[in-house]
Design brief:
The chain has helices at about 30-45, 80-90, 100-110, 135-150, 160-170, 190-195, 225-235, 250-260, 275-280, 300-305, 315-320, 335-350, 355-360, 365-375, and strands at about 15-20, 45-50, 70, 95-100, 120-125, 155-160, 180, 210-215, 240-245, 270, 285-290, 310-315, 330. The chain has about 375 residues and is of the alpha/beta class. GO terms for molecular function: glycosyltransferase activity.
């Protein structure tokens, strides 16, 4: 009796349709991560769209040209749900992913109400809720209530550290069933290429005293005021030390004034946005993170991959993990000026092995991490 054989299915798999939603493409860690993931996914054959409330910012120029960019034209993210829902209905997606709490809430409202759209919805939470937000106590209570209500309805809540998952569970009294722990990715090949690029800054490349570097948005959570006060104390013994801060943000005027008030204006360069901070990292004598709170501290991993000496605040669970509880760098309490000044001096005096720092973060290469993201939300 003959047996009919079924021919193998040679139909090409349909490319997954993936949309990323952000408030904007402004310079920041979350925007950087989504730009890297989008570039990786489109290279893997996915159809990728970047949707933003306003399409501006430096990351726009770094997106692969195959990535579609959609401008919702809403100046405030609280107005995003209606146009976002309309776009999702007119442009069906397999998965849509957002990052940062306010964007996550707006995405979930757009997808879920008044009826659920046929799209898998993922939100990424990158910041600890309990650290650095005391000045917004009332709004934070409302935010927590909304998170408890909406996050269980997502297809997945992506967290960059187990501490964030633990905090979300503690806040609602039981674990979220849909939490997926995925670290932020880094494009190490690109970092190493850019680190070797020339940099045009008069303070770098000479031997006129130690150069300190910080990178981040000029915003309250980065606490650059503590760094400036600590740097002023360091200058009492390190008279030729200078500090470069790469980043832009709402506190520029305030920080500029503080530099003059502390008498360090000539030794501090608030340089603004730089699309290649790695060239600075590879040439500085010390990299400093002064943040009040970080969920992952992407910039710390970047600096370690560049082989920098490190001083960081204890701004979340990850710095201690990355730095092996202080074996690979100095860790200070957030907001402690004297401790930071002392740590910076100790770091400058300590011996330094750049290779050990680079190797310590090898597991975060995008070549491995992006595949884990795509495995979560990239299926058809």
């Amino acid at each position: 009796m003959s047996q009919m054989m079924t021919a193998p299915d040679t139909t090409p798999a349909k490319a997954p349709r993936i949309a990323f939603f952000l408030p904007s493409l402004s310079w920041g860690g979350a925007e950087h991560v989504f730009a890297m993931l989008a570039n990786d996914h489109v290279a893997q054959g996915a159809q990728v769209t970047m949707v933003a409330c306003t399409v501006d910012g430096p990351w726009l120029e770094l997106l692969d040209p195959r990535i579609a960019v959609v401008n919702l034209n809403v100046p405030q993210i609280r107005h995003a749900p209606r146009p976002l829902r309309r776009w999702l209905k007119e442009n069906p997606q397999d998965s849509v992913i957002s990052c940062m709490t306010h964007a996550n809430i707006m995405l979930l409202l757009a997808v879920l109400y008044p009826t659920r759209l046929p799209v898998r919805c993922y939100v990424q939470e990158v910041a600890l809720l309990t650290v650095g937000r005391a000045h917004r106590a009332r709004s934070e209570q409302v935010m927590r209530w909304i998170i408890r209500w909406l996050y269980p309805k997502a297809d997945g809540v992506l967290v960059v550290s187990d501490a964030i998952a633990d905090e979300l569970a503690a806040d609602r009294g039981k674990p979220l069933h849909n939490v997926i722990s995925l670290p932020n990715p880094l494009d190490f090949a690109a970092i190493e290429n850019k680190a070797a690029a020339p940099v045009d800054h008069p303070w770098l490349g000479g031997d006129d005293g130690p150069i300190l570097l910080a990178v981040g948005r000029l915003a309250p959570e980065k606490d650059f005021s503590t760094l400036l006060h600590a740097f002023a104390q360091l200058r009492a013994t390190q008279h030729r030390a200078r500090l470069i801060i790469l980043g832009e943000g709402p506190l520029r005027e305030e920080l500029t004034g503080l530099c003059h008030e502390l008498g360090i204006a000539e030794a501090v360069d608030l340089h603004g946005f730089c699309d290649n901070p790695y060239a600075y990292m590879s040439r500085c004598d010390l990299f400093v993170v002064s943040s009040i709170a970080e969920g992952f501290s992407l910039v710390l991993v970047e600096a370690m991959r560049c082989g920098c000496r490190i001083v960081t605040t204890d701004c979340g669970p990850r710095p201690r993990e990355f730095l092996d509880n202080g074996r690979l760098g100095q860790i200070t309490p957030p907001g402690d000026i004297a401790a930071m000044a002392s740590a910076m001096q100790m770091a400058l005096d300590a011996s330094h092995d750049a290779k050990i720092l680079r190797d310590a973060v090898a597991d975060f290469d995008i070549a491995q991490v992006a595949q884990r993201y795509l495995a979560v939300y990239g299926g058809n």
